[in-house]
Amino acid sequence: MTENTPASTSSAQATEGAATAGHGGAKPTVVLVHGAFAGSDSWNGVIARLRDRGYRAVAAANPLRGPASDAASVRSLVDHLEGPVVLVGHSYGGSVISQAAVGAENVKALVYVGAFLPEPGESALELTGRFPGSTLPGALDPVPFTQTDGSTGTDLYIRADAYHHQFAADVPADAAALMAATQRPIAQAALEEKATDAAWTSIPSWDVVTTEDLNIPVAAQRFMAERAGSHVTEVDASHAVSVSRPDVVAEVIEQAARHIAG
Questions:
Q1: How far is CA 230 from the centre of its chain?
Q2: For the chain, how far is it from start to end, CA to CA, in angstroms?
Q3: With the C-alpha atoms ordered 128, 130, 133, 139, is the resulting torsion angle positive or negative?
Q4: In terms of CB atoms within 10 Å, which of 57, 123, 162, 242 comes out highest?
Q5: Which value, in Å, is the radius of gyration of the alpha carbons in the chain?
Q6: Calpha distance 164→176 (Å, rounded)
Q7: CATH of the domain at 251
Q8: pLDDT value for 3
Q9: 161, 173 contact by CB (below 8 A)
Q10: Which residues have a Cβ under 8 Å from the Cβ of 113 and sit 6 or more positions away?
Q11: Over the range 29-62, which residues count as b (16 or more CB within 10 Å of their CB) and which as e?
Q12: Could you tell me which of 169, 189, 190 has the C-alpha nearest to residue 179?
């Protein structure tokens, strides 16, 4: 694991922030937003570690229908909470938090975990395709659906036989099989929908870049993190880093929380 912190944040500042959090400072609530092909339980290991450190953590149920509507759903939860919030998004959840946090005065930090940080006008699909390395298209299982109003669409799953290698190569096979069986599909239209806002332009951000990721190319992750001026931590992990390396993810979230306290 390597870490790259912008020059504007010194070790002394980080130490001071940690001391503040440890001496009665109000700790923020951590809101965790999962991405496609996963569920809220993908955050269980991270939540356990955050609770051990005295943080309240809430895993939002991400509908996976489209960035705008999903952001509205997450925003309703954020608005319900009192006090400062660290908003965390994995994968497509990064697109969601980038819109959900716009104008939310209680969101003080954003944390992206193997995630998208789109600019207005960009989609998850376009950002993935801009850089080589994703093998996701060949692992997908599309399922057509029809809404009650007669409109149609396509839900995307990862095939069960491809899930372990594609999504969670560093997770034990038995655990990956359970993840495959309980995965939440994403509407294909959600990956094609263009972003309209980018909260990372005004809210400080942290980014866990997953260097063994087969869903979002590492080059794409690095590009987006650099563009956003994020505090970057790189980890040798698959796309399922919140499951395989919850310790790393929790540590980065705490870095963001300490920044708020400082």
A1: 14
A2: 25
A3: positive
A4: 242
A5: 17
A6: 5
A7: 3.40.50.1820
A8: 54
A9: no
A10: 88, 89, 90, 91, 93, 94, 207, 208, 210, 241, 242, 249, 252
A11: bbbbbbbbbbbbebbebbbebbeeeebebbbbeb
A12: 169
Cα 224 to its chain centre, rounded Å, is 13
């009665």: which residue's tokens? 24
pTM: 0.91
Decide if 76 is inside a domain.
Answer: yes
Q: Is residue 151 part of a domain?
A: no
Two structure tokens written together for 227: 């563009």
Find where tokens 């866990």 sit: 208
Residue corresponding to tokens 């980018």: 198
- Among 59, 9, 68, residue whose Cα is nearest residue 184: 59
Q: Is 203 within a domain?
A: yes
Amino acid identity of residue 84, one-letter, is: P
The domain in which residue 214 lies consists of: 2-133+195-261
Within-domain flag for 172:
no
- Minimum mean pLDDT range among 18-32, 110-124, 214-228, 242-256: 18-32
From residue 135, alpha-carbon distances to 9, 84, 165 in Å are 36, 38, 10
- Residue 88, SS3? strand
140 — phi, psi (to 5°)? -85, 150
* Cα 117 to Cα 128: distance, rounded to the nearest angstrom: 11
Q: What's the number of domains the chain is made of?
A: 1
Percent of the chain with pLDDT over 90: 89
Q: How far apart are CA 136 and CA 168, in angstroms?
A: 12
Could you give the dihedral angle defined by the CA atoms of residues 44, 50, 55 and 56, in that order, rounded to the nearest 10 degrees?
0
Q: Can you state the percent helix, strand and coil of the chain, rounding each to 5?
A: 45, 20, 35
